[in-house]
Write a structure and sequence with these properties.
This protein is an alpha/beta fold. The chain is about 40% helix and about 20% strand. It has eleven helices and ten strands. Helix 1 packs parallel to helix 2 (about 45-55), helix 6 runs antiparallel to helix 8 and helix 10 (about 225-240) packs antiparallel against helix 11 (about 250-275).
Length: about 280
């Protein structure tokens, strides 16, 4: 029986410094039915020539180049929309998927249609490739109620993790409307909340992906100079999910969530600066 097609989707913009390593890591996946799709959002550096060279070496790599710049949210939505796979892993252009990631994170989705997200453990790595830590996901492995995880994530910590941690069905992505065009910085967190609210989330503790920690990344800018915007977007998410759905927050919980998000921005900023220098 043929294995379902999985798309590793990589939205890129001025990513020449990192894109080859990211793409080659994705192509090393041991899942037998794979496409790697990169959608470039009008890069002004050497991203596209690098991608075209890689595509000439491996037919599983598809490269699309936008005629006009769509911005991060628009390009991320297009990347998933253009995917041919039934299952999608969307990763930033500087992160890494380890070879056995898909083989070990697909089974919960294949086994149970109520599982909407499959999350793996993630190494934090610096630009030299050294592991400097790991992401703090949901504390217990296994399959959990999505609404419970979503509410706890809004209150305390994004227990889902970064995009490179997650695997989901393209059909579920379309069902929830994809990435919200009005959410600029924490668009992935919003998507995880929407998908989790549909059913269950599977967590695997094993480190099967790598998240690059660098101060000039979107995450670094967001936690640094953009932290006020980040906190404002978190407040919007709190209000968005207070309006109803699979879970709700009372007034005290909503206020705590925003306060704790602002405080955590400072903590994470210091942590990232330390890790990026190791």
């Amino acid at each position: 029986m043929e294995k379902p097609l999985v798309s590793i989707c990589i939205p890129a913009y001025n990513s020449a410094r990192y894109i080859e390593k990211t793409v080659r890591a994705a192509l090393k996946s041991d899942w037998p039915n794979l496409e790697v799709l990169v959608v470039d959002d009008g890069s002004e550096d050497e991203t596209v020539p690098v991608l075209r060279r890689l595509a000439s070496e491996d037919g599983r790599l598809r490269v699309l180049v936008n005629e006009t710049n769509l911005g991060m949210t628009g390009n991320w939505n297009k990347c998933v929309k253009e995917a041919r796979g039934e299952y999608v892993k969307l990763i930033p252009a500087d992160d890494l998927v380890y070879p056995d990631c898909l083989k070990k994170t697909l089974p919960p989705l294949l086994k149970d249609p109520e599982v909407r997200l499959s999350i793996c453990g993630t190494d934090l790595i610096n630009e030299e490739g050294r592991v400097t830590g790991s992401y703090a996901h949901w504390p217990a492995a296994g399959v959990h109620d999505g609404a419970k995880v979503a509410k706890a994530s809004l209150l305390f910590n994004n227990f889902f993790g970064n995009p490179v941690c997650a695997l989901f069905r393209k059909a579920d992505f379309e069902r929830v409307g994809g990435f919200d065009e009005e959410i600029v910085y924490i668009l992935d967190f919003d998507l995880w909340l929407k998908l989790a609210s549909l059913g269950k989330v599977a967590f695997r503790k094993e480190k099967l992906s790598g998240f690059l920690v660098r101060n000039d990344s979107n995450t670094g800018r967001m936690i640094g100079s953009g932290r006020r915007i980040y906190t404002a977007e978190h407040r919007r998410l709190v209000e968005k999910y207070r309006e109803g759905g699979a879970f709700s927050l009372n007034g005290a919980e909503a206020a705590f969530s925003v306060f704790w998000r602002a405080a955590r921005n400072w903590i994470i900023l210091g942590y990232m600066k330390i890790l990026a220098r190791r």
